[in-house]
Amino acid sequence: MNLTLLMYLVPSLIMFGCGVYGFLTRKNMIAIMISLELMLNSVDLNFVVFNRYLFPGQMDGMFFTLFAIAIAAAETAVALAIIINVFRVARKVDINELIKLKF
């Protein structure tokens, strides 16, 4: 494996690990969403790196990453709308408190 490939994959692995840790340990819905976005960004970085090293003349990984970023932005907008509506009802965005709610 090329040394420059490892220079991109190790930070991506660290980013994904931090995202998984944050997703599993946080109780705040916004912090969970930020952790999910961190995981998505590390996957996008992997798409670009593997496209660069496996198919250097093509742009398939780059376009796939752009579509993934667009979908992640739409998903973030929907998640923020849900979080705002939950906050209006419960006045909290803590996951443990939301389990007690009955809608």
Q: And the CATH topology?
A: Helix Hairpins
Number of helices: 4
What fraction of the residues are assigned to beta strands by DSSP? under 5%
How far apart, in Å, are the first and last alpha carbons?
53 Å
Please tell me the total number of domains: 1
Portion in helices: over 70%
Radius of gyration: 17 Å
Rough outline: elongated
Q: Please, what is the oligomeric state?
A: single chain
Major β-sheet profile: none
Write down the overall mean pLDDT.
87
Secondary structural class:
mainly alpha
Per CATH, the class reads: Mainly Alpha
Explain how this protein is built.
The chain has 103 residues and is mainly α. The chain has one domain: Orthogonal Bundle (Helix Hairpins). The chain contains four helices and no strands. The protein has helices spanning 3-25, 29-54, 60-90, 95-98. Helix 2 runs antiparallel to helix 3 (60-90). The longest helix is centred in the last third of the chain and has 31 residues, at 60-90. It is elongated and about 55 Å long. It starts with a helix and ends in a 5-residue tail after the last helix.
Which features would summarize this protein structure in a list?
single chain, mainly alpha, Helix Hairpins, elongated
